[in-house]
User: Fold these one by one.
Assistant:
Number 1:
Amino acid sequence: MSDASELPERKEEEEVSPEPEEQSDDSSEEEEAAGDTEMDFLRNLFSSTLGLGSADKVLDDLTLDGVARYINSGKCKNIICMVGAGISTSAGIPDFRSPGTGLYANLQKYNLPYPEAIFQIDYFKKHPEPFFALAKELYPGQFKPTICHYFMKMLKDKGILKRCYTQNIDTLERVAGLEGEDLIEAHGTFYTSHCVSFCCRKEYNLDWMKEKIFSDDIPKCDKCSSLVKPDIVFFGENLPVRFFTSMKMDFPRCDLLIVMGTSLQVQPFASLVSRVSKSCPRLLINMERAGQADPLLGLLGFGGGMDFDSDKAYRDVAQISTCDDGCLALADLLGWKAELEELVKQEHTRIDSQDKKERSCEKKEAAAKASSASVAPEPKEEE
């Protein structure tokens, strides 16, 4: 993980062991879904270890050109994109761990016991101020989607995007035109918020939360006065139920997996690469190689990781570049480059125009308030 649009790494046990008081009505459904996915994983693992199932070579060449030819062949109709922090860095969102410039290196002003505390649910309930101060700096709406985001929108428009699974919380996929059904926001989203009280759980929209944050108010529930938190997954909280239920249906049907901008180190998200069929091609677009099998597990016969270089490699392709450059290169090979560049230009112009109108309206409202406040009431005439 490298970007503030993506929450910091969470341990798997933290994701499946919520605090007792936070158990929801969906907990049994979530546990059942998680249990089912674990069984699916074991079945796939034993199948791979025992050499069961087919492993047909679909790509004629393990290069970006080979992937492009496969997409253009018309045989590729259910693409799944798995994306992480790296797809948003060119939007200007700071990363977490870069020395001196990363998010964690600049949290001293919040007097945290340790940097990750800002995303700890226990700490948040007692000290919400640091999180909301940070949220004001990074709030959705201040950044524009990248070339990579719009490449996924093109996949949708061409009818070949099955789903986008994202670790990011910046909502830029939505801004680019991916809608609720197109997205699995594995680590949650700022798009909605809920009261943290188990007995209340009232929902609030993005505009309500934005008004509170930019007014420097700690968001409190209108109904019960408890804290209201954006629906992003903190340490100590479960991933959304929809993550577990959707992956069971989506990944067996996937005929091309495109992984972009993620180190594939955060579980259970990283394990999704092993849930496609053994024949499904997998393309990684990233600044470094990721998702490769652990050598020790490989010796024990446990496969599933990505294999770019060995003599047995037959489906995995690594495009080592920025996500934007990789998407442009693939779009060029597909004959879509001019269309993608025009889409990015039009959408950025539209967003800039919309932002300009909103700022103008806000200035007029502020001026009107200031004017009404400065007008003193006329004195009453003495009788």
Number 2:
Amino acid sequence: MSAGSVAVAVIDDDIPYWDLYELGVVCTVFGIPHPDLADPWYDLRLCAADPSPDQPPSGPLGFTLRTPYGLEGLDGADTVIIPSVPEACVDGERELPDELLRALRRAADRGARMVSLCAGAFALAAAGILDGRRATAHWMHTEALARRHPEVEVDDSVLYVDDGNVLTSAGVTAGLDLCLHLVRRDLGAHVANQLARRLVVPAHRPGGQAQFVEVSVPETGDDGLAPVLQWATERLDQPLTVDDLAARAGMSPRTFFRRLQAATGTTPLQWLLSQRLSRAQSLLEATALPVERVGELSGLGTAANLRRHFTLHFGITPTDYRRAFPGHGGRTVRPGRTVRRAGH
């Protein structure tokens, strides 16, 4: 597996506070090396429409991007990300630069993975990259996106949309969900889970679709739950019941159920299932163990039970999933391609 190169197109020369968040998410996820998780990490470069270091900010906020890369920096990148566009471009009061749209089309035509966060979808749509595709953006902008680009199938009910080599996310923190999803596709569940823990990301954010990024022990904010959840993740290969977890936490089953649901948004049995599936992912990625043994070690039981839950949750069989990770008898999948075939 390879992280590859990530080029980020920054459009405005005066970055609003709101848009700094999405840009910061991209820089945090892809720009900070984690050699203990994957080496090499991503090669990140920020590309400005006007990279002149002497140009003062055009607005009152005082933030301007200084980078040696112009839009030509998008050429050759494995992944191109548009973290945002100016609000005036969303409202239609200002057109996006032609040179940006040409650079995006060139990248898409040569097969780069194209990604937008929040209002960045307007740039991909204006370049024609979202034509005939399902996409999303911040819920405050989806109506405008659908109105201005009727050829795009806009879905305002999800955190992000993975449409193979084109991915879009809703606004603000949903951009982090999508960036972690990309890490998971590129480097595997274990790396994404560990990175999510370092970023203190909650477990399994709801969003109307199965998400691949789940941390092993969620940050619950409940000191009484963290130790028992850690204890449970170390014993996933053993039978575990709600009564077992409640007794370990020193609570009644009803109290434990209520506190876990309040802290994580899920029930104890759903939480256990997600941890078992995450363990199965890691075993399929990192070992050549038979599917039967993966089922046993993850606590999902028989190979048939593993296949049923895995296919239901991820839309792919364990065997096909393993093929996406070369080195254990699988085939190589180009970064940006989702492996999704008919189940057994």
Number 3:
Amino acid sequence: MPPGNPAVDTADVAALLERGRALSTPVMRAAIDRLAPPMDTVAAYHFGWIDAAGNPTEADSGKAVRPALALISAEAAGAAPEVGVVGAVAVELVHNFSLLHDDLMDGDEQRRHRDTVWKVHGPAQAILVGDAMFALANELLLELGTVEAGRATRRLTIATRKLIDGQAQDISYEHRERVSVEECLEMEGNKTGALIACAVSIGAVLGGADDRTADKLEEYGYHLGLAFQAVDDLLGIWGDPESTGKQTWSDLRQRKKSLPVVAALAAGGPASERLAELLAADAKSSEFDSFSEEEFATRAALIEEAGGREWTSQEARRQHAVAVRALHEVELPEQVRDQLVALADFVVVRKR
């Protein structure tokens, strides 16, 4: 666990997340209303606003870390948090575009304790609504019509391209017996780090910040994203399904070469060698989809015995430290710095 930040406690972090959700949701709903039927309904289901039958619901719509970061980012430039709202919504649209497509490509049937969009509405709608969200993100930013909006759109499109690069790498790694730790970190930096980096700079750009300030905020966000993904990788194997909303051993079921797996394979020793043998056999097995809980538990135990779990936990802390250090290399209001440190702390210790 990272050192506690005395300036911001858990309740304050919850308030920052709730502020991001409260300010961005009305703008998000208005954007989704622009979509042609049935895409508007499918998107509303994905966000948890309605159930599969179209009835209003209060389902979990995500952690809202990215919107919270975008609003704080605006304050980093001395602007009101509301200045970052369109940026927050744009980033969240791109994030959810990636989730819709990822769920389909990975065959995930559950997200946030509900059936995924492709399972309820079909693969075609998952693809179309994801594409529409990507287009909406750029549309909302460019409608602002300012120089700052153009700069923000450029950062978002670069982050989106890197995100797609990361997903392509992730898929390709599933079919390889060995992936290096360096390759895995590069993939996760693209897939997760790039968009979080954009979230924490986009509000500042919209608020008129110079490129140096925005770049330093992106540096913080990139390493925060790596810490975030390292924790996700731990939860993807050992997370409580009641908290994560996913199946037990979720990443092992998908043959993901996540950090704990890659680190365990690179460690050497009997557990590492046995794990490598099992994973190589898994890749050729026609019965993999019918594996028992015990078989996945065996693989998880070998990953832990080889040191993959502990290494990944330490990597999350290391990336957290690098992220926080970047905040001290740029002039920021003290309250903003405290809030960003507190959110970094939250990312490393979260359970879902």
